Amino acid sequence: MTQPQSVVMSSCNDALDNGVTTLASLSLELLAKIVECCCITSGREDDACVLESGSGQTQCASPVISWSVWKVAMPMWSVCRTTREALIMWTRSIEWIDLGGEVLNSKVSFLSIASLWTNVHNLNMSHCKGVDDCVISAIAHHCPLLTNLNVELCYDVTDAGGVQIALKCAMLTHIYMGACAVTDTTIVKLAHHCKKLTHVAVPLCAVTNEAICELANHCKLVALNIMKTERDKSSDAAHLPSTCSELEHLNARVTNDDMRRIVASCPKLTHFSCSISYELTDAGIETLVAATPSLKHLDMSGCRNLTFVSVVNVAQRYASTLVHLDLSHISVTKEAIGAVASNCHNLTYLSLHSCKNVGDAVVKELHGRCLKLREVDFSETAINDTSLIFFLYHFEILDVGNNDEVKQVVMKDRSHMETLHLTGCKKITDPALVSVAISCPNLANLHVDMCEGVTMTGIRTVLSGCKRLKHIWWTEPEDESASVAGV
Q1: Judging by DSSP bridges, how do beta strands 174-176 and 199-201 pair with one another?
Q2: What sign results for the dihedral spanned by CA atoms 203, 209, 211, 216?
Q3: Cα–Cα nearest to 60, from 39, 45, 70
Q4: What is the crossing angle of helices 430-439 and 456-465, to 10°?
């Protein structure tokens, strides 16, 4: 018998701080059995969920309990009536639920639980196996107060479930459906029935620009992710309407012409991702920096026609506001990284993943700079032990007392660093990890997979030095007899 998957419901710190009723670390199957023992489930017609599919209707199975399940649940009847009633009231008061990445082994059990979620406002089921249109329809049927729904990477969710959400969850403000099998049908229904929507993410979905225009014309969008699947497609925002005046977050492939329309239509833009915009050039970025005053988050990864000129312009324009910068897979130089290091003092995230020119000279530009960095990605670059150590440490010369001739050299570290990516860095070896262990006391995540020079000795050093470490990604060399589990 397999161990039931544990779920975390409403692990959000904000929810806990605000006194929102939450549920944490309870098996989904166990919760279902408790609910069933409290006489909540039935085969009543009003509990069944109905899917509209074309001209006909499909009714999902009612949550009727099988005898084998009931035998397991029978001992729960010893729970007193008051306790059962309290459990029912508590379950109905839950507002935040997080099932992200879990497996719904029993759809019947889920439908039993969903019948009590009448007060749920926020539901995360991203990458949750077993989620299909029947599950989504049950959520739409039982959760009329839903404002935030995340079903990203739930590949079996189609327009049949999406339309039910649109028709029955009019309070929705946030919906994330990345990689779902939804089309324009769902988007148009959302536009006409969920006019409170502000945050919409439909990347990797078969959604056209015309449907996005319909959505933008009916909803005051604040965040929009419309990255498409077609590899040969040059633009996802060719017809972005002028009604996006409230837009602050945009994720789309763009061209230089698109950039002119975006800066004219979206004066409040603060978070912008133009990742893999193959036709975007330095002229497009120049248009952006000339018209957008205060970007905080910029992702230019994979824009192969951009040069160091764009990086310099961005660093100088957004010196005080930029906190997140992704330069993965583009051409960077010592001059470009020098501009970032000299200007962007508030940067907390920097990615140089797969930047071919990143070596000693480039990385050393960051020495003693960008000290607020929490996450850095040097994966698949030519960085070596010396340049990494130089990046991690810097020295300050302080006056001692009133005598200008007496100086003290103080070594500073990367105390803010929480995540360090070194995947595929062939020149990184154990000595570099010694420096990581000493200079990054708050490190929580370390990626050193496919680093051939890293051995168990280096891993042990990091484990002993970084007391807050939660995850290490490491590919064990073939000649290593030990493993991380044995530490």
Answers
A1: parallel
A2: positive
A3: 45
A4: 0
Residue 34 and residue 362: Cα distance in Å, rounded? 59
Strands 394-400 and 403-412: antiparallel
Per-domain residue ranges for the chain? Answer: 233-347, 369-487
From the centroid of its chain, how far is CA 411? 35
Q: Does domain 233-347 have CATH number 3.90.1300.10?
A: no
pLDDT at 359: 82
| Alpha-carbon torsion (104, 106, 111, 117), positive or negative | negative
How many CA atoms does the CB half-sphere of 13 hold within 13 Å?
Answer: 0
Nearest to 351 by CA among 413, 444, 273, 436: 273
- Both tokens of 250, joined, read 């945009």
Q: Write the pLDDT tens digit of every residue in 237-291.
A: 766 666 688 999 999 999 999 999 899 989 999 999 999 999 999 999 999 999 9
- Rounded CA-CA distance 77/170 in Å is 38
